[in-house]
Design goal:
This protein has 413 residues and is an alpha+beta fold. It has 13 helices and 16 strands. Helix 1 packs across helix 13 and helix 8 crosses helix 9.
């Protein structure tokens, strides 16, 4: 995450400083096998890859680069969990669902959980850490009778979609902006974020966008919807019709191939793909539905909404890009904003955060700076639900950093 995600206009948004977070993030990166986590640092990244960054041929006064890692191959952490189980370091209850916290006075003494056969069992512990995510953690706490006006409120995600397309007046080889394989086991790329000064001046959330090389002029809504279907392919939600469209659409097929292989193509067009920051919006929430699960507990009700203010910030971003970043002496916008409706095309990035957010007191949030639930002595939450702001990146590294920080705190008690 970025410094502005922690403090804006002199107001602290998280209950501890960015410098503390960043220290834990680097430790977590090493624990997760990232070979050079120091590259996350802006000055180091800009210095090491200055030649590649300059190939985009824009000034970095309005936008600035941001480094993203993609280790190869993706690590399967289930093998690590199995190793811990084999060593007897953890007990594991597969195919089970946490249903209710067993609370005595102001202390949790255990957890009720449901088995695949429909039984409800109990497990007891001196300290309980909930890590079930921003959709399920509020469901568990609400079903346990925990009262807090902020519980479940402020569900945030990263609404994402192509915003526009630019044409380079001279063909580009800006590989670092699409994806650059620097080692056999590491791909890096640069996203672009608006500078802190621009964010403050125009009251913009901390949006991030990427250049996705394209090989034909223009963006059409049909292609965008197919791309969104491809994002959900792991859930087997892609239709044969969409597969056929991909096979027969050479530009779309090339875009997918380039994205997957990091091939160094020369390109004249680039789609600007936005992963936008969503601000806290209380009408976006997780509550309890009237539907019961097979153990008799109420299921989560998810009501994800994007505010008009956040939608309007995308319009602001487009105007800034057109007038100040991709200027007409070097670039051409291939269409107007109205030709591609952002609100019709954006999708969830499945980066759910914010429903049990951290705060200084219970009047402002659900957990304190040490992730302890207000009003319950030994209950902690460690997942994306505790984020006070969404930033513009996926949650994994930050959750890992918070987990290491929480483990250190619990160990010190």
């Amino acid at each position: 995450m970025d410094p502005i995600d922690f403090e804006r206009n002199g107001k602290s948004l998280w209950p501890f400083a960015y410098s503390e977070y960043f220290d834990w993030a680097k430790r977590a990166a090493k624990k997760l096998g990232v070979s050079q986590p120091e590259t996350y640092e802006y000055s180091r990244f800009v210095n090491d890859y200055s030649n590649e960054l300059e190939k985009l041929n824009i000034g970095f006064d309005v936008v600035k680069p941001k480094c993203f890692y993609q280790p190869l191959p993706a690590h399967n952490y289930s093998s690590d969990i199995k190793r811990l189980i084999k060593k007897g370091l953890i007990s594991y209850f597969p195919n089970s669902c946490a249903l209710e916290l067993i609370i005595d006075a102001d202390k949790v003494i255990g957890v009720k959980y449901g088995t695949s056969s429909g039984e409800v069992r109990q497990i007891y512990a001196d300290t309980v850490v909930v890590g079930t995510g921003a959709l399920e953690s509020p469901r568990l706490l609400l079903n346990s009778g925990i009262k807090n006006d902020h519980l479940g409120r402020g569900l945030m995600d990263h609404p994402m979609a192509n915003l526009c397309q630019i044409e380079f007046k001279e063909k580009s080889k800006a590989y670092l902006y699409s994806a650059m394989k620097i080692k056999s086991d590491l791909v890096i790329k640069s996203g672009l974020v608006f500078s802190e000064e621009v964010q403050k001046e125009f009251d913009l959330p901390n949006h991030c966008f990427y250049l996705r090389p394209s090989f034909s002029k223009g963006i059409d809504n049909k292609s965008e919807k197919v791309k969104l279907s491809l994002l959900a392919i792991k859930d087997l939600k892609i239709s044969f019709k969409d597969i056929w469209f991909l096979v027969t659409n050479i530009n779309l097929a090339l875009q997918v191939l380039l994205y997957k292989t990091s091939y160094k193509a020369t390109f004249r067009y680039a789609d600007l793909f936005f992963v936008s920051e969503q601000r806290t919006y209380n009408d976006s929430f997780v509550g309890l539905s009237d539907d019961l699960d097979k153990w008799g507990y109420r299921r989560a009700l998810v009501n994800w909404k994007v505010s008009k203010e956040d939608s309007q910030s995308i319009v602001k971003a487009y105007k800034i890009l057109k007038e100040q970043v991709f200027t007409e002496d070097k670039f051409v916008f291939t269409h107007e904003l109205k030709d591609l409706n952002w609100e019709d095309n954006y999708t969830s990035a499945a980066h759910h955060v914010g429903t049990c957010r951290m705060a200084k007191n219970s009047d402002e949030g659900v957990v304190d700076s040490n992730l302890k639930v207000f009003g319950v002595d030994n209950l902690y939450i460690c997942d994306g639900s505790v984020f006070p702001t969404a930033g513009n990146v996926n949650n994994g590294l930050t959750i890992a950093a918070l987990a290491m920080r929480l483990a250190n705190h619990i160990d010190s008690l």
